Amino acid sequence: MRAEDCVLWGFAALFILIPLASFLVYGFFFVVDNSVVYRPTLANFAEILSNDSYRTTFFKTLRMALEVSAINLVLGYATAYFIWLRPPAWRNFLVIALAVPLLMSYIIKIYAMRGVLGTNGLLNSVLLALGIVDEPVSALLFNLTAVRITLSVVLLPFMVLPIYISLERIPNSVLNAAADLGAGELQTFARVILPLSLPGGIVGAMFTFVLASGDFLAPELVGGIEGFTYGRLIFSQFGLAFNWPLGAALSILLMIVALAVIYMARRLGNPRWQR
Amino acid sequence: MLRFQGCFLSASTVLFAAGFASAQEVRLFSFEGYAEPEWVESFEAETGCSVSAAYTGSVDEMFAKMAGSDGADYDLISIDTSIIQRYVDNGLIIPFDMSMVPNTANLLASFTNVAEVMSGGETYGVPMAWGSLGLIYDTEAFPDGVDSWEALWDPANAGHVLALDDANNNVTNAAIVLGIDDPFNLSDEDFDAVKQKLIDQKQYLISYYAGFEEGVNIWDTSEASLMFSMGEFQAVELANRGYDVVYSIPEEGGIGWLDTWALSKGVQDAECAHKWANHYLNGDTGPTMTELKGYGNTTDESPGLDYADKLIWLRPVEDFDRRVQVWNEVKAAQ
Question: What is the mean pLDDT of residues B67-89?
């Protein structure tokens, strides 16, 4: 191993692996009278698997994350494709404009979305002004739809950027060759551009899915009664019930799903799978 | 028992706090409305201690944060009398040196001998504010008023109701609504009934909220016209934002609370902390708080709070952890 690698792994161990492990190990402890008892047990996992409400919340959340990924794959691809077709000077500007929200505080963005979706919000004002509705629609906020919309908007850059990068990496010569061989625009898109840029979409879908499935702020702030997701379940063990062991055990299950998704994305993201 | 939390997760927090907490500072962790510029500035000028305040959204959150760091992050916390013993039992608060809080001489008679602030002969809480968890309604939507909590379970009000996200207060209030004799000492059947009552309510709610401001903000962005309130301050805030609301205690009664300043086990500047508790009882801070924030104070009359006899004062409960567990199940219920 080279010296740089040693330093890199050292940093990873010190700042990522050891803190993560010291946290996950809590999942195998338990709580008595508000104190953590440091004796190994599988009781937390038994409780999670036997409790209906944990299970339903788990699958509800995964489904919601999957829907957000699907919505974002479509929106994100369209956006990236649009940017890619602009002249080079425009492209850089648009990509930067898209990345700017990433510098903003996450919680501010969610509050902003609440302002947009509320009964006195921007979206309702526009709908009213255009005469599409007669009175404000309250169905836009404080339900699972609001969570889907908010997460789709907030996570969009994570989808657009990888797709845009894979579009950028398609050599002009390949497109010229397609034209020379008589492929129409539609055919070039379907048989050359889309397959070559799809790995970016898979990476983006992975980002979106993993971030959406673990999120607890958006569900809390815009989700209302329906917004009790798996992330909030974990949060409430740490932040309200003071049951860190159960919270850590719940996190381990989510992490297994996240790692599986990342592994799958790695396999699928390699263009060779298509052959 | 050896507690490892300090070594593992909160090590960074502790180091950060130790490294950066300057001398002559009091770090408050409280509900909103207890650290306003009107009395923070005079305190800082008189004592030379600076004030940093963090706010909590619920009783549960405050306990979890204190337990998670063994109190290292805060000097003084605002807790109600019913929960003081729980903090004492968990070793999270330490007693005051009452010789450093001479202004307790200013306390009204009803607040001078509160049994719950004492434990083992020591004083763990300095009574500083009281109030209720009342019902707020919009007078436009309810011109005839609302006199029962059942309005929060009325299908006619579906989509217009807000409730707070707090385990003990929801369980207690539901028990009051159900007419259970002792809402602080529930039997197994009582727990089942309370849980079902709270689950039944979900279909009518817009959202739960955590924190005074959060409740007011949701009211602002939704079609809310009824709210299970965290306290008087919310009615004041809603009125400030132009809503015509009434704060009331329905006929079933409502939860009454007496908040105290309590000294965290992890207190860093104990002198400033004592001075803050003392400053709160100087006879000026209390009435100002009542005037601006609507809470009752403990040193003078509290104009406007004329419903003390309708309140059911919070007392220690049979099993706090069970209440937190039940509340989590209510929130997770489909």
Answer: 95
> Shortest Cα distance from A34 to chain B (angstroms)?
7
Contacts of A119 in chain B (CB under 8 A): 221-223
Contact at CB, B4 and A36, closer than 8 angstroms:
yes
User: Of A233-237, A270-274, B124-128, where does the model show the most confidence?
Assistant: B124-128
Average pLDDT over residues A14-34: 89
Give chain A positions within 8 Å (CB) of B207: 142, 223-225, 227
SS3 for chain B is: CCCCCCCCCCHHHHHHHHHHCCCCEEEEEECCCCCCHHHHHHHHHHHCCEEEEEECCCHHHHHHHHHHHCCCCCCEEEEEHHHHHHHHHCCCEECCCHHHCHHHHHCCHHHCCCHHHEECCEECCEEEEEEEECEEEECCCCCCCCCCHHHHHCHHHCCCEEEECCHHHHHHHHHHHCCCCCCCCCCHHHHHHHHHHHHHHHCCEEEEECCHHHHHHHHHHCCCCEEECCCHHHHHHHHHCCCCEEEECCCCCEEEEEEEEEEECCCCCHHHHHHHHHHHCCCCHHHHHHHHHCCECCCCCCCCCCCHHHEEECCCCCCHHHHHHHHHHHHHCC
> What pLDDT, in 10s, does the model give residues A44-103?
999 999 988 899 999 999 999 999 999 999 999 999 999 999 999 899 999 999 999 999
CA dist B334 to A147, A186, B150, B158, B201, Å?
17, 46, 22, 17, 12
CB contact under 8 A, A54 and B329: no
Q: Where are the domains of chain A?
A: 60-274
- For chain A, what is the mean pLDDT? 91
B-chain residue closest to A23, CA distance: B9
> Does the interface ipTM go beyond 0.95?
no
Residue B19 reports pLDDT greater than 80:
no
Distance from CA of B45 to the nearest CA of A (A): 34
Give the CATH architecture of domain A60-274. Orthogonal Bundle (1.10)
A145 contacts chain B (CB < 8 A): no
Query: How far A222 CA sits from the closest chain B CA (Å)?
Result: 9
